[in-house]
Design goal:
By secondary structure, this protein is an all-alpha fold. 82% of the residues lie in helices and 0% in strands. The chain folds into 2 domains: 93 residues, Up-down Bundle (Receptor-associated Protein); 199 residues, Receptor-associated Protein.
Length: 347
């Protein structure tokens, strides 16, 4: 229901920004929503607001909104800047979606190519190799090693393919899920990604862009630093950055500055480049943290765009070579016996 909650906040910000009252905005959102769960939730919020409960309290009672969103709306109600703060929340959610989308788009192309290669390879191995194995096994010639391996593999798949292929696919998808998606073990996949040149840099740029935009917009809207860091910890999917934001949260909540917190974090340069650290420290001293964080977000969002283009340019020939090598291996295994057969007939 996360996307629906995001759109609910964004639409509520649009309505209140157009000088429509909260109750009228909620009525309009109920009519525009198709999800029964969202209709019930918005209806409950509407009833609470009608009975005199503040919007922030009504949202908090649903247990569907992050703490920093509740805090921002509460600050907006107290300061008379509710529409403005709702817009800030909407912008933060939109930016977070954009950054996640950019990261997914960078990974989508190589994954699609590798998936298609796997599917085509399995199709050839399962349906074509067994037939080739029958043909070559009847030839009275000495077969090359690569052809012998291909024939044996084809015979094996012809006998046990209906069992082996499903087990192979299930195993591959299970391993990928456990390494990259299962919450308790996805730190393994994260470590793998963080050693791949280009991907590591892209992840860091996306996270720094999110760090800048979220902190800048939330601080500018009046949210204290600690709740803003909590929202960052909730937003990121990477353990390294969750640990870093939690560390900052605990240190700053204890009364430490950014400078002291950065100094106490081991290998800070692997998380934030020196230039970013220096910008934050200078802004802390000059009292311009919100503007500086937003600037950092803009700089690293632009860098993200460039890195994605560069990764695509580099990966394209690499993936083509991988596919070409697979096709070449099969072609050589088929062509070599044919040449041997022709040589036998033409001494």
């Amino acid at each position: 229901m996360t996307k629906e909650v995001d759109y609910f906040i964004e639409n509520l910000a649009t309505f209140t920004g157009a000088s429509i009252s909260v109750t009228e905005a909620l009525d309009a959102l109920i009519k525009d929503t198709k999800s029964r769960r969202m209709i019930r939730m918005i209806g409950a919020i509407r009833e609470d607001v009608d009975s005199g409960v503040s919007l922030s309290k009504a949202l908090e009672s649903t247990n569907q909104f992050p703490e920093h969103v509740i805090s921002l709306i509460r600050i907006g109600e107290e300061s008379g800047r509710l529409p403005e703060n709702l817009k800030v929340v909407g912008r933060e959610m939109e930016k977070d979606r954009e950054l996640k989308s950019k990261l997914r788009s960078a990974m989508a192309y190589p994954l699609i190519v590798l998936f298609l290669t796997l599917v085509i390879g399995i199709g050839v191995a399962w349906f074509i190799l067994p037939n080739l194995a029958k043909v070559f096994s009847q030839l009275d010639i000495e077969l090359p090693v690569i052809t012998t391996i291909l024939i044996n593999f084809g015979i094996y798949l012809g006998l046990y393919g209906s069992i082996v292929i499903p087990i192979f696919l299930i195993s591959i998808f299970s391993i990928v899920y456990i390494i990259f998606f299962y919450r308790r073990t996805n730190f393994i996949g994260e470590r793998i990604l963080f050693v791949i040149p280009g991907i590591k840099e892209l992840i860091r740029q996306v996270e720094i862009a999110r760090f800048g935009y979220v902190m800048g917009n939330l601080l500018d809207a009046g949210l204290p630093i600690v709740p803003a860091l909590v929202s960052l910890e909730d937003a990121t999917n990477f353990y390294v950055y969750r640990h870093f934001y939690k560390y900052l949260n605990e240190n700053i909540e204890s009364g430490n500055s950014f400078e002291k917190s950065f100094d106490g974090y081991p290998h800070i340069s692997g998380i934030l480049p020196v230039i970013v650290v220096q910008m934050i420290l200078a802004a802390e001293k000059s009292g311009t943290l919100p503007q500086t964080f937003i600037k950092i977000g803009e700089i690293y969002e632009a860098k993200t765009e460039i890195t994605i283009k560069n990764i695509t340019i580099v990966l394209e020939p690499i993936l083509l070579v991988i596919v070409w090598l697979g096709v070449l291996a099969v072609a050589v295994a088929i062509i070599l016996p044919i040449y041997s057969l022709i040589g036998k007939f033409n001494p």
